Amino acid sequence: MAEISDAARAAATLLHRLLRERSATVATAESLTGGLIGAALTDIPGASVTYRGGVVCYATDVKESLLGVHHDLLHRHGAVHPDVAIQLALGARELLAATYGLAVTGVAGPDPQDGWPVGTVFLGFASPEGTGATELPLGGSRAQIRRVTTEQALRLLSARVARSTSE
């Protein structure tokens, strides 16, 4: 299992604090990170207050059957697409009854996928205020891409939660 980086631990700690301040929760849907985001979140004592759980949806059919990603979207664009990241985040949020959904999909390598080069990553989020996706063009090894994706996903959601209104 990959080691949780200090940066991921710091980002997870901040996210938990922001969620606690708002009495909010998060659920995750992870593809290329394979559970690293959930591992970073659960590495923090007291995580059960704000982390509802996560789905590792590595296979494309699981994205559709478990998290509700539209079949037509997957058929047209494949699993690596910003709209897939958004639908994964929405699916995790709904499935696990969380305030926020956080999702990642992309290509860690070693080969391109769905026409996307290695290092293409999409982070998706779903919140009471809406949804969105961000593209991360990353380089490096498979392990580096997965590590940086984990760190950036936690930072992205922390920024979104910080901008949201308290509930």
From TrEMBL:
Source species, domain of life: Bacteria
Domain CinA C-terminal: 12-159
Protein name (Swiss-Prot/TrEMBL): CinA family protein
Phylogenetic classification of the source organism: Bacteria, Bacillati, Actinomycetota, Actinomycetes, Streptosporangiales
